[in-house]
Fold this protein.
Amino acid sequence: MDNTTTQLGLMMAKNRFYFLEAGTSRPLRLLSAGALDLDVPFDFQSLADRELLSHFSGAISEMIDRFAISASAVSFCLDRRMVQLKRLKIDREFSEAEVRQQVEWELEQMLVSPRSEYHANYERVRSERDHYDHVIIAVVRKAIITYLNDIFKNTRVRLDLVDVDLLAAIRGLLLLKPQSRGLAALIDVQEELLGITLIKDQGYLTYGELKYQSSELGEENSEELATRINDETLRLMESLGDELLLKSIEEIHISAATLPTAVVHALQRLQRAAQIQILEPLSQIDHSLSMEAEQMIRENARYILPLLGLLRA
């Protein structure tokens, strides 16, 4: 297949990276998918070690050869811990110049190093229901982008786009659930960590994390864990003040099959008005994947969902 007709999405998470290759036409069609283990984790400590560049480049080249990937460019999904996100309320009448001025002022308040050391992008979100707009600001250190560019310079794919998993996961969710509206929560299960993203009218609201022990996944602890998830969700809602006053969660989406059914049922009892679903990443996606690739996707929905959103962008 000609390399202009495929697109590649890649995400590195701790000691593993995941990829999806898809056609560029719409609707999205997955052509290949896979995961490879890394000898060293891709994290802040690794980014400080230039000697590891060849290690990551070699792993990506191995992936390209092993899976016969034909794409010439890659979109890369950064872990949320490498990106700062902030959501601002702004006057609906603000001009774009006034929005940029407000964003720069906010950056001066939130950044710990000089502004020149960061890349910052923002998106203005207009709402038909509210009397104001919002701006989502995403900030990443330039050193991280430079390191990524250097990794891909030693492979045959060029780095075309960089996104953050939190925002990409929302786009992935909307690819699977395009009719989703109102107030929703997206729960992703990580190793000893639950991530909870609140979404309103298909847009990002806020994010929180909940630490847990593997022993809490047992059926005997299901009520306690569900209560903790519910409490953190309510705390996140309260942190947004009047914006969510008197509102309730309408949908809860879980991007991992590893959360025990007993926990899901217990959470449903606490959130009776909400529709709770465990996401099936391939439910609305056309594909020509092998059975092995299908299984990998089902077992790693937390990492696949952002990649779907990345390819949808």
